[in-house]
């Protein structure tokens, strides 16, 4: 196998993107990755962090060299130095916190899943559009070099017409207590918004939105979705076979099958990984990008679009994001995983 072929495309260098001054809203686990990777790998900086606990904000700021810490989200979004806010709170709070930042005139990058439902996502994007501000879900996979390579192969027609997609995402979370956000309905817990979103978003990225969604699975004792198998069918007849669970650490691989070959994404498919193209006729070849900071690519995309005066990214636009949320809404409905207020 060769290491790079003519049909592969490469991602833009995150370090070449314009600078943007970020504020982090909610210094949780995922925010640590953002705080570490963005200043080290892009021209952008993290200038402030906000938490409901001032001590926690100060500790986080000290750990990552962030100059300003606030004991409230309102103070964070009011900071004139902050141009864009990375929202890393639980899903149940995403809409409220995004509207807070947008109301203060800040662009937003909201952790996936962007909200609890398609309806909430529509509200968020409408608020951004009304103010002429950038808003995007932090689905980092869309911007990683291996996914840029995948789309280059698909666009070349090398594997022909796409017939099916398969993807899985399983993590062993059996040790979590019922109050943990992953098992707590009040915090929009469950596999769907944290784990299944990756296979579903991947299927949408390759096939587009489906016209049919079928889901089967199980719920936890707290009523959130635990394990699920989901099939999607598009208007073209292409299908997706998707699986996620909180009960097992699966291989987390993905495959795109075409009439003239297939593309294999090694586990973990949604993070930097190896892509192998296996055409029906010809030699297989692989691409393993050198990526030290996966979050930098989505942050660089935000900076490019903001500096261009644009309010969304064509790689992950509002319409597409809402379509993913609508698929998850329907799958949760079929599973009986109802969140408070629904």
Automatic annotation (TrEMBL):
InterPro entries: Gfo/Idh/MocA-like_OxRdtase_N, Gfo/Idh/MocA_domain, GFO_IDH_MocA-like_dom, NAD(P)-bd_dom_sf. Its EC number is 1.1.1.292. Gene3D superfamilies: Dihydrodipicolinate Reductase, domain 2 (3.30.360.10), NAD(P)-binding Rossmann-like Domain (3.40.50.720). The keyword Transport does not apply. Keywords: NAD, Oxidoreductase. Residues 150-264 form the GFO/IDH/MocA-like oxidoreductase domain. Residues 21-135 form the Gfo/Idh/MocA-like oxidoreductase N-terminal domain. GO terms for molecular function: 1,5-anhydro-D-fructose reductase (1,5-anhydro-D-mannitol-forming) activity; nucleotide binding. PANTHER family: OXIDOREDUCTASES, TRANS-1,2-DIHYDROBENZENE-1,2-DIOL DEHYDROGENASE. Belongs to the Gfo/Idh/MocA family. This is 1,5-anhydro-D-fructose reductase. It comes from Occultella aeris. The lineage of its organism: Bacteria, Bacillati, Actinomycetota, Actinomycetes, Micrococcales.
């Amino acid at each position: 196998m060769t290491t790079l072929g003519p049909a592969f495309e490469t991602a833009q260098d995150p370090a070449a993107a314009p600078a943007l001054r970020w504020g982090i809203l909610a210094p949780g686990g995922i925010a640590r990755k953002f705080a570490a990777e963005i200043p080290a790998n892009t021209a952008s900086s993290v200038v402030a962090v906000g938490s409901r606990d001032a001590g926690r904000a100060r500790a986080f700021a000290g750990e990552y060299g962030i100059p300003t810490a606030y004991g409230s989200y309102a103070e964070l979004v009011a900071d004139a130095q902050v141009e864009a806010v990375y929202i890393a709170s639980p899903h149940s709070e995403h809409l409220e916190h995004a509207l807070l930042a947008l109301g203060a005139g800040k662009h937003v990058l909201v952790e996936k899943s962007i909200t609890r439902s398609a309806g909430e996502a529509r509200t968020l994007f409408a608020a951004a559009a009304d103010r002429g501000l950038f808003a995007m879900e932090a689905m980092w996979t869309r911007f990683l070099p291996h996914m840029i390579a995948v789309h280059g192969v698909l666009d070349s027609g090398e594997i022909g017409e796409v017939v099916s997609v398969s993807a899985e995402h399983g993590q062993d979370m059996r040790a979590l207590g019922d109050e943990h956000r992953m098992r707590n309905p009040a915090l929009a817990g469950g596999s769907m918004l944290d784990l299944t979103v990756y296979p579903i978003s991947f299927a949408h990225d390759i096939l587009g939105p489906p016209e049919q969604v079928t889901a089967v699975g199980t719920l936890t004792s707290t009523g959130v979705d635990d394990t699920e198998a989901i099939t999607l069918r598009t208007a073209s007849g292409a299908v997706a076979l998707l699986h996620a669970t909180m009960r097992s650490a699966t291989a987390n691989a993905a495959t795109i099958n075409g009439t003239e070959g297939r593309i294999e994404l090694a586990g973990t498919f949604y993070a930097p990984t190896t892509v192998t193209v296996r055409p029906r006729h010809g030699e297989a070849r692989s691409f393993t990008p050198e990526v030290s900071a996966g979050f930098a690519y989505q942050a660089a995309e935000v900076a490019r679009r903001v500096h261009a005066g644009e309010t969304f990214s064509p790689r992950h636009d509002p319409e597409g994001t809402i379509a993913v949320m609508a698929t998850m809404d329907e799958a949760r409905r079929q599973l009986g995983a109802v969140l408070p207020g629904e």
